[in-house]
Amino acid sequence: MISGTKFKMVGSSDYPLCDCCGKTNLTRAVIVENEHAEEFNIGVICASKVLRQVYQGKKLPVSQGAIISMGKEAKASAAWKIRNGYSAPSLAAA
Ligand SMILES: [Zn+2]
């Protein structure tokens, strides 16, 4: 489970486990950080729910395409990689 009310994108990930729903066969995941600077690896579907955008006064889910491009632009923190024992580069692998 993840906790927090405000999240921001901090990086993309190929780690297949979603910290939000527990799904284990993710093909694309991103890393988000909550207001307590805790980071979570979550799938794009869950990310679209926690990373909301305000549009015309309403808070709306962010599209999955937007999540993926946001993740590519952000970089996972070194602390996250150390904590999770995970350092595979996600962009060079393709
Ligand atoms: Zn999930």
Question: What are the key terms here?
Answer:
about 90 residues; alpha+beta; 3-stranded antiparallel sheet; two-stranded antiparallel sheet; 3 helices; 5 strands; about 25% helix; binds zinc ion
In terms of topology, how is this protein built?
Elements: E1 8-13, E2 29-33, E3 39-43, H1 44-50, E4 52-55, E5 58-61, H2 64-73, H3 78-84
Antiparallel strand pairs: 1-2, 2-3, 4-5
The structure holds zinc ion (ZN).
Zinc ion is lined by residues 18, 20-21, 23, 42-43, 46.
If you had to describe this structure to a student in words, what would you say it looks like?
By secondary structure, the chain is α+β, with helices and mostly antiparallel strands. It has one domain. Helix content is 26%, strand content 26%. The chain is built from three helices and five strands, in the order βββαββαα. It has helices at residues 44-50, 64-73, 78-84, and strands at residues 8-13, 29-33, 39-43, 52-55, 58-61. Strands 1-2-3 form a three-stranded antiparallel β-sheet. The mean pLDDT is 83. Bound molecules: zinc ion.
* N-to-C order of helices and strands: EEEHEEHH
Low-confidence stretches: none
| N-C termini distance | 30 Å
Query: How are the strands ordered across the major sheet?
Result: 1-2-3
Evaluate the radius of gyration.
13 Å
Structural class given helices, strands, pairing?
A: alpha+beta
The biggest sheet, with number of strands, parallel, antiparallel or mixed sense and barrel status, is: 3 strands, antiparallel
Helical content stands at 25-40%
Number of helical segments?
3
Which descriptor suits the 3D outline? globular
Query: Strand fraction band?
Result: 25-35%
Whole-number average pLDDT? 83
Number of domains: 1
Q: What small molecules are bound in this structure? A: zinc ion
Topology, number of strands: 5
